[in-house]
TrEMBL record, chain B:
It comes from the Eukaryota. It holds the Pfam family ARMH3_C. Signal peptide: none annotated. Its main location: membrane. InterPro entries: ARMD3-like (IPR039868), ARMH3_C (IPR013636). Keywords: Membrane, Transmembrane, Transmembrane helix. It is found in: Membrane. Coiled coil: none annotated. GO terms for cellular component: cytosol; membrane. Residues 149-389 form the Armadillo-like helical domain. This is Armadillo-like helical domain-containing protein.
Amino acid sequence: MSEGSLSIITEGDPELFIDPEVALKACQEVLQSHDLKQKGDGDVPDVSVDTGPASSSESSTSAKNPIPSSMTRLHKPRPKDVSSSQQSSWLLRLFESKLFDVSMAISYLYSSKDPGVQAYIGNRLFSFLDSEVDFFLPQLLNMYVHMDAHVGDAIKPYLVYRCHGSVPFSLTCAWLLGAYSSDMHLSTQTHSRGSKLRKLILSDELQPSARARGARGGHVSGPVHVSEPRSVHVATRRTHQRSKSDATVSLSVTPSSNLKRTSSNPRVESPEQPVRLAPQREFVKSLLGIGKRLATLPTKEQKTHRLISELSLLNHKLPARVWLPTATFQHHVVRVPHTQAVVLNSKDKAPYLIYVEVLECEDFESSMVPVRIPETRVRITRSVENIAVAAESGDTRTGTFSIVPNYDNDEDAWSTDDLGMLQIPEGHSCDNISQFSVDSITSTESRETVYIQAGDIRRRLSEQLAQTPTSFRKDPEDPSAVALKEPWEEKVRRIREASPYGHLPTWRLLSVIVKCGDDLRQELLAFQVLQVLQWVWEQERVPLWIRPYRILVLSSDSGMIEPVLNAVSLHQIKKQSQIPLLDFLIQEHGPQTSEGFLSAQRAFVQSCAGYSLVCYLLQVKDRHNGNILLDSEGHIIHIDFGFILSSSPRNLGFETSAFKLTTEFVDVMGGPDGDMFNYYKMLMLQGLIAARKHMDKVLQIVEIMQQGSQLACFHGSSTLRSLKERFHMSLTEEQLQLLVETLVEGSMRSLTTRLYDGFQYLTNGIM
Amino acid sequence: MINSIFEAILQILSDTSSRGQHGYDAVVLLALLVNYRKYESVNPYIVKLSIVDDEPTLDGMGMVLHQALTEYNRQYKDKEEENQGGFFSTLTSMVGSMFIADAEEKLSVQTNEAILLALYEAVHLNRNFITVLAQSHPEIDMAATSTTPTSTAPTTPLGTTPPALDNLMVEFIVTHMMKDFPMDLYLRCVQIIHKLLCYQKKCRIRLHYTWRELWSALINLLKFLLSNETTLLAKHNIFQLALLVVNLFNMFITYGDTFLPTSNSYDELYYEIVRMHQVFDNLYCMVLRVSTNTGQWKEPASKVTHALVNIRAIINHFNPKIESYAAVNHISQLSEEQVLEVVRSNYDTLTLKLQDGLDQFERYSEQPKEAAFFKELVRSISLNVRKNVSLNTLSQDVLLKEFSTIS
């Protein structure tokens, strides 16, 4: 705990500070008193509970509030309570144990029917790290929207508290709430709990308390201690559990000394602060607006052109207090290098990929928004008067032309004096009477004639064109292929050089795919499952490789996706290189015995094993080559989880195999009898055993999201049961091994995979 | 000139509301002020305009120009639509066009000279303006340039889209071959293409542009010059233009390896030259004839003969090869693919001459060549403005009030 921030915060009321430990203890007291009450089987009057937790509270007013009011109010003694008291103490021991993590908390929150337990877990949420809880935010919010009032009440204080503290959290909540409420009937939707909370958040009433802001003021000067403002609220909140109005009152009552401190902070935007959420909402709105307008244009070229001009307009409003929600660090967006954006392949919608330049900052909300650096980069302003002088001096900037070849980037290279500098000075003084008059061109009689071979020119041309073998050629029908093939590092360097912000040490490049008209809730579910599987395999030390990519759900038909870097789709590879996958890997990484190829092959096998299991467990369908990427290290990465669990495209019933395993894949792995192929099967077995061990984590994620959902992946009644069955809890390891063999065999022989590729080729032109 | 209102003009342009009200007038006024006695004395407005780097202001200026030009385009389009329709009018215009379009403007919409001058000065004087213009509204540049064939088109490409500029040039070349030949514009147009090629060569930029369209446009231009030799020669030095065109081909032939997008495009260049060899042959005959006579055209014509050396070498090299290929394979009419095949397999026996100075171009300078044009233009604009400005619409006190807030 830093002294600087402490002194600032405690100044107002030293009593306010209560450790998390004390808060935790208070939580337990709630539960114990609840236990007590159950033992008493309703004999104890409800009021008696009130005395318990108030002992450690900071103010006498809050102590008088009836605490777990809803709990006592709603709890009706039932016969089974006798046995449940036993259960509860066991539960308490579990909840207190070190093993109790967010995943378990979510699980008990969902499955426990006991309001007391739910209330306890609601409190316990405060003691977990923000980032840990954030992962389960979709689950929390879906429970909030679709489950009964007890769960909602238990979660709400936590949500409200976090919204107070963080703009990104507020907006993520609002977006998810909107998306998860969308499946409700319209009449109930507007009055539902989810919609109400969403409105509350968007009304921006959930301002950070002055105290928290005071703490933020401290951030600017001194070191940060994140948990600081948190503990304040654990204490305050604990006694105000159910009452929203109480919470807001306590937050709005602020010592004036703190307010002054806040206002002394030079960067607080305005006293009324209505703009807390607005910039980001505008930013997202304009990105989605672009997507919608693009969808109306008929050709890819038109779309690309429109996209670039729209983004250039967007640039005028940057930098601003906006961020890219798919990023993992705090930052402000400063510029969109608009000429780099590309429209992605899609039949009727227009998803697009943009690159975004950001400056990393300490705290998104309190750090200064970077100052705008004008695009024009007035390096040396030259007027007509001094152009001549500059040209004469043989400006050294001629050197910058070596980087020009990306002609779509350096627009200002077209300006007058740059063109002028193309003249090789040769000691000419460049006055207005031209030295380069064309008339002199052919007056070469006096000179010696130089001869050249036409064949040489032609050869040079083809050689130079061949010098860039790893980049794809430009195809107006598929503009993304070139953009995605360029190695990320190179792209970053290139964009950084061209950016007016590039010289700043905190400059970073991010990219994001904006999707309009697509429901990304399934993608988000898939991301969560993949992430859990990745953690599980990491924890169990099995080297299966998968790459979960972040998803941001903005509504039930729009969102953003984190692009996978340095990867192109198998379809694009096939179309561009026209060679089998194995040959492509050899071309990229070296001959089959080389170090480069072998490590690429290992990466390929490990990722194949990972994704084979993912595809099998989640029943991922629509596996054509456009949906499978190959990265620069040799990993395959599956994208597009639009058809998982119970849904399949157009319900054709194609793709009956467990996962996609074409002969091309097997060839890369060294054929069906090779060592690498055996390694592949072994990895799958290990991966399945590990996943089985942690099955509950996966099931829980899916099960909670099924609540109230109309998503196609939950269609039918057997989704969860079938998922559970695919973990084969009852099989021995030998039997599992046999199962893996069968699955692999079946997928290899599968005609339907091949059929499906043919089908995709016919309907979508995907090879 | 002593009391500068430059800052005031800029302020009008940078503010959205005042721009809406007075933007047009402010821009026109600025254009006129910049031109005030600029050839005789040091004009402070030129200096000031050239160093403006405030983005909102430059943006505002671009916006005003954009609006004015869009309006002009709209008027032209309306007029055009008006003129269409009616069987009779179509018939008459057809008959009319049989007698070759004379100078008479078929569709006469008064060109907005003032706004074009303003655009010119902004682009010419202020390098930041170009960037602002090209970045914020990629559509502006096209709108602006496509309406300006009758003015002196600014010599720097405005936009981020060189292929679009190439297209524009090709379009101009194809559409303006008329009796009253706009020689100076053709020169300018070919010079722009030349400048672009120089840039591409220097920076190794490979535009994905179908150069074939340009080649055939240029060849047709040569054809036009040849068939109208006598009428044109009475007024213009057609050899200067012919030389520029031939040298464009020389650029492609000698430096094609540095900027052509595919290796096939180099083959196609040869194919096009060989296919249209008649035109080059005739041109050569013509310039040879003129250069052997004594007269004012002797010198410029002989330059063209020299410039044609490589093109003639190509024609003389490949034509026999193609004929013998046809004879050996007993084909009367070779397909394009077959000709390309012959071209590809016979490069190595062809020797070309390296010509000097192909990639050097004349820099644009307003003085002294264009001075007369601008003098005339400014005179006409100021007359127009005087005629149209009516202070009666504004009562004096309103006017005074506004002046006080302009600061």
